[in-house]
Amino acid sequence: MLAAATTSASGKISIIGNVYLGKVQNVLPSMEAAFVDIGAGRNAVLYAGEVNWEASGLEGKARSIEQALSSGDTVLVQVTREPVGHRGARLTGQISLPGRYVVYVPGGSMSGISRKLPENERSRLKKVLKQVVPDDAGVIVRTAAEGATEEELTHDVSRLRAQWDEIQKKASGNAPQLLYGEPDLAIK
Fold it and tell me: With contact defined as beta carbons under 8 Å apart, do 112 and 103 qualify?
């Protein structure tokens, strides 16, 4: 199992990037937000713009947070911002897993390639990834992928897919719980 959090330069432990199975404590329609217990002491906040609408079964319908979530629901979330002062961590329902060459987006249908790469390299990477990326996921190709072999890209995508499969297996447990912790900065 990976470390539960990363350590910042100041020595403080970071939870950014961690994936949790959270339990919705309350929904505030006026704020378009839900407060979610992720087991980190104080509740984290999930704003309506960060809800995974496809997972909630509300795609194509009016998007209001009270339709997607209610108290007691379990929700798969990822931390995007540290807790500050009396405010809890900020969450997203749109999970992404960073790799060496790509960022894996489970359930995403779109893929993107860094604009910093030359056009001929972008075309090559597009062809390779068409064969490597599963239909039920998307990827964002990093600048570091320039010159990467097909085997390296395949390995990166396969590793991230296996990581996602492991997260999904753990997600059938009780909330709140940490499902995936970003590795320590030295390991990263």
Answer: no
Strands of the sheet with 112-113, listed across from one edge: 97-98, 102-106, 137-141, 112-113
Tens digits of residue pLDDT in 20-55:
999 999 999 889 999 999 988 889 999 988 887 666
Question: 138 with 108: CB under 8 angstroms?
Answer: yes
Identify the H or E element spanning 166: helix 150-170
Cα 188 to Cα 24: distance, rounded to the nearest angstrom: 31
Q: How far apart are CA 20 and CA 91, in angstroms?
A: 10
The pLDDT assigned to 11 comes to: 54
Residues 6+ apart with CB under 8 A from 39: 20, 176, 177, 178
- In angstroms, the CA 136 to CA 178 distance is 24
Q: Where are the alpha helices (DSSP H) in 69-148?
A: 119-132
